[in-house]
Amino acid sequence: MESAPVSHDAALAVLEQVLGSPAFRGAERASLLLRFLVVRVLDGRADGLKEYTVGVEALGKAPGFDPRTDPIVRAEASRLRARLERYYASPEGSDSAVVLTLPRGSYVPTFYARNGGRADTHVPAAVSAERLPNSTKPIRGPILRWGVGASLIAPAVVAGGLWVGRRPFAAERALVQFDVELQAGASLGSVVGTDVVISRDGTRIAWVSTGRDGTARLSTRQLSEDLPTELPGTEGVRGPFFSPDGRWLGFWAARKLKKIPVEGGSPTVLCDATDLLGASWAEDGSIVATLNSTSTLWRVPAGGGEPRALGDFPAGGPSPAWAQILPGETHILYTAARPFDADRANIEVLSLRDKSRRVLVRGGTFGRYLASGFLSYINQGTLYVAPFDLARMDTVGPARPVLSDISYSSTFGYAQIDISRTGTVVYRKSAGAGRVVAVRLDSTGASEPLLDAAGQYTSPAVSPDGRRFALSVVEAGTPSVAFFDLAGGRAIRLLNSAVSRSGALWTRDSRFVVMSSGSSGISWARADSGLPHPLLSGGGVQLPWSFMPNGDRLAYHELSAARSFDLWTVPITEAEGGLRAGTPTLLLGTGAVEVFPAFSTDGQWVAYGSDASGSQEIYVRPFPDDQPGVKVSTGGGRTPKWSPNGRELFYGTDDRRLMVVRYRTTGGRFVPDTPRLFSPVRLADTGVLPNYDIGTETGRVVALVPETSSASPRPENHVTVMLNFFDLLRTADLRARLTSTLRANSPATLKRVALSF
Predict the structure, then answer these.
(1) CA neighbor of 480 nearest in space, from 498, 495, 468
(2) Is the confidence at residue 241, as pLDDT, over 90?
(3) Closest Cα to residue 374, out of 353, 403, 410, 345?
(4) Is the model more confident about 329 or about 737?
(5) 3-state SS of 479-515?
(6) pLDDT tops 50 at residue 153
(7) Does pTM surpass 0.85?
(8) Would you call the peptide bond into 624 cis, given omega within 30 degrees of 0 as the criterion?
(9) What pLDDT, on the 0 to 100 scale, is given for residue 181?
(10) How many Cα neighbours within 13 Å face the side chain of 51?
(11) How far apart are CA 302 and CA 171, in angstroms?
(12) CA distance 605 to 618
């Protein structure tokens, strides 16, 4: 008896079942090769599956690849056949209704449809166009907006006899989306980096959450499970990433790059790292990561060892971050960005053969190659995708927006999204589409709008005389500092200053502001002009935070490659109608991250943030005496600011709450009370940048809060999971190309195009 034809849906389902099996777990190259071969056949392009094509397009070999001298394709195909045989010999595969094979001497996969448990009839992989009914419920809402024209022409093209890749012109599987609550009693998120990641086979997720004690820890669970597993030994974690086989998790903590088994165990230290701005684990057992502020990508053995620099990146230029090792492991995709300017970053690729670098996308961050053959990146919270050719190492079509309102950092360039090679997506939505409003906020939670419009704002700063207000803004992806007049109660914009978006600090007489210029140091500007002038230049990013009460000394924190952030002060004088800086003095420099040095109103104390304890906390130490700091915060803290009344210290928390601490000084000692919540209102998520300022009004602060009119509040411990994402991308890309062709070409041309698909 002949077996029934295998439908396209059934063939894809078998492929996903095989790739998700233990036989293929951790075998990324074999999985990519099998997916490449099956998709080519299902798209009607089996004739092109020759040894050279497979080597260049699937295994990442150079265009000059010679199969006669390099047997990699034959070797990988042999390994793939062995894995398929292992799968179908297992209990999981022995019951499969359809058998996927790769015949010896061929690179064209075939399917056997079993009747009565026997695979008695060979069915070609050029499967029938018979459709199986979708068992999944389509997602509601405008996830993709390709235009009405594309949606309307698709049925007409199919009805006219055109089959794309021998299948109907429609999504093969419905897109499915749902929310998952990860962990109760903790706040999802970390200081810098992607909080939630997914294993490459799409079966397991891991995330960073902060408990009530203010300490970040790593947890994991299978998507099919209900309860998470917290991994002891990961305190202070950020930046998790999976190994190719999904059995290990890499992460950063306590200025070390580490790894830990996903089932739990003792973490292993891999190397020293003053920072971590992205990491990617290769099949060859190495990790490529950004480990410090030296504008370098590093390769680290997955078993631990001394990092080795990769590439030749110019000092003072855009820094490489958020790297991904591409299939074939001969190229690295990364984001090249300057501080505080991620929306104008570039997606670049580095060749490990000749160390050459090339720009792929201008105006994007967090680039990722997707196993379905696309390059994705983020711009202003929207995910864009473009068709990508691994052989040419370049995009081969226009980029299109596919998903909006993704939480991301315009400061550092990371995004809260991860995509497995099976097309499962996990991501976090931004509250209010990333837009915030500026308000005057009191301790009861009552608020009064300060600006008429919401926007992408950070770092509010009220002038000491209470008459003006500065705010970092991002408009159309361009950062600047905007100045407003507060004379009428509501803020009226006066002018913009074209400097980095890290914020403005007013001098005590309200005549000048100082601002970070990113990697170019610190600038000053007259408050009535906003025109920046150089004030201080150093070897790293410098961020001004406070002035002494008499205005003659500035405190700031500076990023160095050796020790991360340290605290500095510098004398400031007024000369020739502007500001002039003296010689800087190190205030506090240890191995910890020390930031936000705030002079008290009497100049005798400095409040600052430090992660010396393993989590970011607020401390106070005397100035200028070199004495240990007194811990003030409980459960984490950042961005300290002193109240003008000289009796209270404010600070923010990682879960965006505003705390206040009353204090007294006794015998030269700083004695803080227990911190208390200032207001029940949760502030906007501005990353490590400030989301409040004290201002001059007693009992009220100036705060940034999420815009609530455009979206409901984001659940604190939820992520969105999306299934079958790649099917939607492929269909949408074909639809867009056909739409463009129908609009631009004659019927004769359209016929040739139809035949070429």
Answers:
(1) 498
(2) yes
(3) 403
(4) 329
(5) EEEEEEECCCCCCEEEEEECCCCCCEEECCCCCEEEE
(6) no
(7) no
(8) yes
(9) 78
(10) 18
(11) 39
(12) 13
